[in-house]
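A quick word before the example. In earlier lectures we treated sequence and structure as two separate objects. From today on, think of them as two lines of the same record. Here is Terpenoid synthase written that way.
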Amino acid sequence: MECSTTWINSTTVNEIDVRNSGAFTTLPVRVSKYNEIAITAAQKLACIWDTIRYGGVSSRPVNVGRNLLPWVVPEALPDRMATAVKLIELGHLCDAFSEQLDSQSRAEVYNMLTRCMDRCSVASASSCSCPSACNKEFDDRQAQLRTLIYEVATEAIQFDREQGILILELLGKAVAPEPMSFGCRKSSAFRHRTFWPILEFAIGMKLTEMDRIVLRDIKTVVDEYHMLNDEYWGANITTTASYQTDFCRMPNLPFQGKEGLKSRIMDLEFRYRSLQADIYAKYPVESMRLRRWIEAAGMAMAGYNYWRALSSSGPCNSSSSACSCSPSEWTRVTTPASTMSFSSSPHTSYSGTYERSESTTLTAVTNYISSMPPSPSVQILNMAPSALNTWTRAPPPAVKCISSLITSLQNATTTLTDITADNTHRYNQPTAHAVFGTMQATNSAYYTFIQSVSEARALANPALATDILLNGFNRLYAGHSRELNWKYNACIPSEAEYLSVVDDTTGSLYTLLVNLLQAESCIPFHCKPDLTPLATLLARFVHVKEDYLSFHNRDTQLSKSTDARVLSYPVIRLANIKPDSRAQISRYLFEGSKEATKSGGGCSCAAEEKRDPCGNSVNYSCLVLLLREYGALAATRDLLRDIEDKIEKEVVQVEKMTGEVSPMMRRLIAGLREGLLP
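And the structure line, produced from the sequence above:
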């Protein structure tokens, strides 16, 4: 399945839920839509395992509600999900069983498991043409275990023979007896060895040797990230989830305190982002094909941090249950993969990421927006409350409420922006109004604004919070009004006018955030720093950065929308540098957009290339050439550097005034630079 990154099989985990769990990842966390399939597969395998171990059904609870795979590989293909889960769980169950035995018993079990996992034994459940060592009689327990392994391996090999055999061999090596191994944790070796093959199997992607060389550094970062997470969360492992043990414990890792480990873990996330940007820039052609693997690696990092946080907080009660498989069911582990069907699901999905049953009609639109992968700008906005609260010191419940409120407003404004800009897609997925209709999308967006007022009234100072919110709405709508006026009159504004509107639209969300945090702060008024200038600069940067990257990285953008026909800073800069091009640019931006709308989103050829009265061609390629030739893109990058310098100075000034250094703000600033060339 070779395609650009598309979030088809997973949904975004709410940022507030992630933070409440204790996780601290700065990467977006996603979970598979098919989590129930994973839970069922793991539970059945655990039941069958108990049947083999105890000779009957065990009454112990099977805690599989927090199964690892849906969090670490959320984009696993639905038809491979159950098989991948069983491959992982089989290794964990074997290891956990062996760890409970003494050295002599463990050696015997290892020998038994090695024979059961022999390639020849798996090749046929009933017969084998290999030497007599393979044909020896298995006792009942060995025969049952071999049959279980055979069924799981057969499923994997049906999908991908090469990967299935590789994973099985790695599983055998992980439990095979080795000198001095009986005091070691072999489960970590299993997961460390098999994680990447299982990830590639689950997402249905094969890498060449050259691909592995290109991706080697990212793989190293992810492996170290998992190891450090095991060190950080290791003290909180619960016995109820002991069969799901850690990836690999880094040997001789010096103790630096949990905060030191946390800092190293977060540094690895930024290292991953840097390597990701480097690969996209250095290998533009290959990266289009490898993007799914690269994004899957990032999701594995974020998902593992979140999963460890959930696991450390205690067992998942909602999904724990006693084993309910009958003894006769142990030979019927699963439905064969070839007959597995999801057509009976009662839910109707949109673009593979949203299900109608997840929410009511009023909130369906904003929930659909939330299910999309967060853009870099949204990620920065999600980080901002924690970063700014270093200086505002609002209580945690208030920060949680304000973060939720700002996220809802961001979703609503995104919906309205897509409508006014005539966008049909956002990150390769249909926009909200393309799915739900323009009227329903608009209605839901306005409903979100009304609901935000109700949320503001739940804060400690409801009157002040409501006033702040209404003032922010005034700015937001005033800014949108000016944008609509430019579009209606086919007018290209000046750079100063454009930045002023950015301050009123994107800037209103950031200033709302700052003002609400300040209103909830317990710091005396005269001691509160003025964070509005910093909020305005952050908003300008993220908005202009999106404008810049929409042209600079056009060939590798995830978005296939009509963003090229939206007013942006590089285009306005070009119009001011080259005044004689204003008519052509205006015709391309405004008339092309109108005709595309009238055509109902059909063939875009006519809208893509226009000629002015003098016969000059007007198209996207020409526009990009002009932007580069006349230095408009370079000027935009210079503006971003200037704003970045101002942000740094503003942060230093606030830190001096308050005496508080904000590491989270420093990480946020590093995130601003992501994707930008020096």
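Notice the following. The first helix runs from residue 15 to 21. We will return to this example when we discuss secondary structure assignment.
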